[in-house]
Amino acid sequence: MPFDARAMKKKEFFYVVETEALTRGDILAYSDAAFTDLTVQKMKRSGSGVILFVTDTAGEDAIDLSKSITCYGKRDQLQIAYAIAEADTGRVYFLGNRVSKCQQMIAFSVIAVSLIVCEECTVLKFCQSKGFHLFGGNIGKAMLPYLEDLTPSDYAVCELSSFQLLTMGNLVHQPDIAVVTNIESTHLDHHISLDEYVDAKRNVLIYQSPSQRTVLNADCDYSIGHRVYHDMRYDVRGKLAEFSLEKPVNPGAYLDDNDNIVYAEDGKVTQIMPASDIRLPGRHNIANYCTAIAAVGGLVQPEQIREVARTFGGVEHRIEPCLPLQSFCMERLISFS
User: Fold this and answer.
1) How many Cβ atoms are within 10 Å of 29's Cβ, its own excluded?
2) Which is deepest, 8, 112, 285, 299, by most CB within 10 Å?
3) DSSP E strands: which ranges in 160-251?
4) Would the pTM of this model clear 0.90, i.e. be above it?
5) Is the pLDDT of residue 241 over 80?
């Protein structure tokens, strides 16, 4: 049975299958095909990996099977897990509550960013200036084709929507840096309630370890009407950093009284740059830079941040210049004449 994509590195492997509908029988058939490919074609006798099924709809029996791992060999030396991405519902299923090498492989060293606007672009640019190996997410570049190239020393930046986070439980000490930029009463056409929406976003930070970083917005009421149940600050497991346009924060990044962006940590305040250095227009992009600086503080040097701010003009289709206003008006005038 043909696979749509595959990647392999030493004893870890990854297969991708695209299909309109998915049943338990399909999963078992592809599992056997992967076993044959590994043992006969690749001469592998041990290892662990994942088959990802991208499908419009998945049957209940297929979803149940995604919570298990198929083992081959007398000593279970070859293990295959299954992940399902269901397009009709936007849900992702993999491994249930079981922790394994396969699960770590899926969630491998990801800096997860759950946001409403496009500050992930800024984080990407900062880390590119540092020379880290990076991935995208919701900015036009799929991550799976680059899985084979990811190494333990690399960083990945991934934007995750509340739709994706809804089923991403039990990550186990992941992600290394989690950012929740704000909470608003949005996407309620998809979520059954505001509680479900907030709980979905909470998944990005509640599985972190104490040594990992969580970035929150100091200007945002994460409690949604001051209900303690919703306040994410009570759920932070890692080291909290914040960002603000209205007040000083420590640790974190904020806009001071002179419209300079500064970064504070352990009582030390470092001026990063004037807000006017940011090429992207809009006050929300100043907040985006503060967010990104709080996320990469200690990883990226101030001069690299300044260089990005002065040169980065945005990504395609997002605040993208199309035509000078004067030229546009002239063309409209000609078309009407």
Assistant:
1) 13
2) 112
3) 177-180, 213-217, 239-244
4) no
5) yes
